[in-house]
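request received
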Amino acid sequence: MIASLEVRKTFRRRNLVALGSFALIAALTLGSSVVTAFDWPASLRSFPKALDWMAANFIPDGRALRNAPKIGAKLAETLLVSVMATVLAAACSFFMAILGSKTTRLHPLVSGFVRLVASLCRNIPVVAWAMIFLLSFGQNVLTGLLSLFIGTFGFLTRAFMETVDETAESSVEALKASGAPWLATVTQAVVPSILPQVASWILYMVETNIRDATLVGILTGTGIGFLFDLYYKSLNFPSAAFVVLCIIVLVILIETLSNALRRLML
Amino acid sequence: MKPRIALRRPTVPAVVLDATLLAMVGVTVLGFFLIDTKGLKAGPASLKLLSDLTKMFSRPVALHFSLPEALYAVLVTLGLAFLTTLLGAALALLLGPFAAKNLGRPAVAGALKAIVAFVRAVPTVLWVLIFAVGAGLGSVAAVVGMTFHSFGYLIKAYSEAFEDIDASVIEALRASGATWFQVVWRAVIPSSTSALVSWTFIRFEINFANAVAMGAAAGAGGVGYDLFMASGFYFNIGEVGFITYLILFVAIFLEIGATRLRARQHVQR
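response:
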């Protein structure tokens, strides 16, 4: 009897939680729809409309293919900028993460400072950084490089700090107990044990940065994003479609490559 | 002379790791010679950047909008992020069980994963701009376009959360005659709720940044649009600073929430 009462209570509580969550989500949905002037029927209609439009206009044609060299060059530039931003950011993050991680930090104040800088870098969106750098660096490839660098730095510093804490904590403790100096501990124990994870994060960020570079390119007038925007705004949709196709191929290639590398490395 | 003892024999993982890192560094060094900076003088530009950064963080001003208007713009951006997350989560929850190896047919799971890889390969902004032609610039194109990526991200996260479930639980339920639907609805989803909530909130955090971006690059409104106007149209660094502070506060708040949820999930495991 008592047991069944307990069970009933548990179930009632569970139902109440479910009901409460549902009501909260419904209220937030309604509020969001009103604030953003979101038209639900129109959003459903947009699907067939967009698909129809894509089938009719968004197919690369002969003229688009003639733009291939130009698109290829911009695509190469975008890939280059993504890799550069990632590698440069990873190099900085690597040192910062060792100074910032709880396991390897030299001083809590330094660690706190590193965490603060990284948090600022990643919590200000890449778009905002791009709009900030646009004022001083203008429509230049360096604007994109710099904004991707800052965003990647913020993200990777946190990721690397977590990696250090997860993979090297016990070995650092053991080495500390045996009296090994800090520098030897870091170079001989921490660095080798986190390197595979670091490489994996770098590959992941290259992928992410190619997509983000497209966005930043639209805003700063550089790279493949600029070319897409150019074709899109001049209503040259077949060429714009070709750009999208090229981006898809590049991203999937990079993804496949990095997955293969990851499998071999880890 | 005694031969040196090889302390670290080169293994395949070690060689691949070194080659990968070396190739990346090589490309980066090469990149400095290859990228066309159009003769930009990095020195003066950096000095201007330094003064810009000092100005924007020390003297943020709002010229073209009042504080209530700015807060409302933040609310619009949060609304876009919420709707996107909701739609993405609903779709991912619906299709996630089919993409999980332990629940769906391998062929269906494979097909879903291929579609998702394609969906995620297209940058969000391009989805939004493609939908904008059909639906017009605005919240509909932004939310529908951003939903693609949210769905792609969440279905991966959800299906992996489902795959983490103890196989014996599913087996026991099947053996006692539970239907596939009952297994998913009564066992798999309830026992992975905390993982689902945590991943969804992380996606909400990402979607907030995305919604800012779509406001700036695809006319979706909200605080991103104000940012775009302040920088690209009025060239007002003080106003850029004001908006950046607003975005920063919300983003840090969301990050703390996401970190807490994730920590709680780890404790539960």
